[in-house]
Amino acid sequence: MLILECPYCGVKGEETEFHAGGEAHLKRFGPGSEDADFETYLFMRENPKGVHLERWRHANGCGKWFHAARCTMTLEVFGSYSAQTFEPPKEIKDKISAKRPGWSWRNFS
Amino acid sequence: MSNLVSALNHAKSAGFASVEETGLQGMITVRGDLASKAMAAAVKAATGAAVPATRKIEKGDTGAVAWMSPDELLVITSYEGVDSAIEAMKASLQGEHSMVVNVSDARAVFKVSGSAEDVMAKLAPVDFSTEAFQPGEFRRSRLAQVAAAMWKNDDGSFELVCFRSTAQYVFDLLSVSAANGGEVRHLS
Hints:
- The complex is a heterodimer.
- By secondary structure, chain A is an alpha+beta fold.
- In chain A, 17% of the residues lie in helices and 28% in strands.
- Chain A contains two helices and six strands.
- In chain A, strands 3-4-5-6 form a four-stranded antiparallel β-sheet, with helices on one face. A two-stranded antiparallel sheet of chain A has the order 1-2.
- In chain A, strand 5 and strand 6 form a beta hairpin.
- In chain A, 23% of the residues are buried.
- By secondary structure, chain B is α+β, with helices and mostly antiparallel strands.
- Chain B has two domains: 80 residues, 2-Layer Sandwich (Gyrase A, domain 2); 79 residues, Heterotetrameric sarcosine oxidase (Alpha-Beta Plaits, 2-Layer Sandwich).
- Chain B is built from four helices and eleven strands, in the order βββαβββαββαβββα.
- In chain B, the strands form two sheets. A six-stranded antiparallel β-sheet of chain B has the order 1-2-8-11-10-9. Chain B has a five-stranded antiparallel β-sheet with strand order 4-5-6-3-7, covered by helices on one side.
- Chains A and B meet through loops of A and strand 9 of B.
């Protein structure tokens, strides 16, 4: 079971209080973009064994969306951070690096 | 004129703790910038209380104010006092980006007294131990399968708010959790 901490209300809750929202930091390619870009945006997802960045919503709580960094293998949560960002903040990256040296995820490491 | 009734009209059940639907309660959803002076004035005007800190409930002379999310408060007043409270708040929030809505009839309110922690802890994934969940604390979570918001009173009883459409479900949940013979006594 995952124990996530909502960065907005500070609640440390278990998984059932939250709702998973898929992969984090997707860049949208909408109407007018290249077909290849659109296809990548729609269908191509990371499926790592290890460090993963995801979107979550505190559905049975304050209702806010946020980001979480976790390990898909051990279910360890490295940290959660605001939804209003295009990349994980340095402190989250540092926390991941402390536990999984040499990690990388898409363009981040 | 027809009588106004709440979702379950004061339904009661008693086991090792007692469960009661508390009847008509004035409730107002307020959204806006919680840190602004206008919001503080509006909340003061409606209830006499200050804007609560994160996950807290503040009680005032004419009501209470609870923290729902970083931009949302729940103002609790008497059922009759809702309209005047809304007017007072709208006046204070004039010109601010905000929303004040009467949700009294959209919700149901329950009170659990007695060994309330035992009842609540069976239903919500929340730490209800006396050290962790103290009077004045306000928590939105789930009760079994539906969303609910709960707080603890000074006398140790719990009050909780859920959607009116789930009132019967929540009453049944609380009643069965409070049934005699179902005491866990882990928390007390």
